User: Fold this.
Amino acid sequence: EVKGGDKATAHAVTTLAKEKGWTGDQLTFIGFDLELMTEIKQRLLELDMGAISVIYVQDAYDEEKAMEVIRLAKAAGLDGVDFEADLSVVTPAVVSLAAASGLQTGVWG
Assistant:
């Protein structure tokens, strides 16, 4: 997890991933800071490492907010979303929208 606003670490770790030849099977970035996650994805694309997933984690307290988060992640060019495991939030409609948007869905709890 990349902490909000930590651009220096994000830059360093994307550079390290390139140097080490890490792949999407070995590394995934997650974080709550949409701007930073977008920057990381752009940097990975610049380094020809776009197969490494960048996942937007966000607190969503209802289905509508989760769908908004999905739309934001898709618009930012990210690879997925991650929500707290709450059946009132991570509904079949939310999972379907994420899938239709080409996004991975993760849950934590």
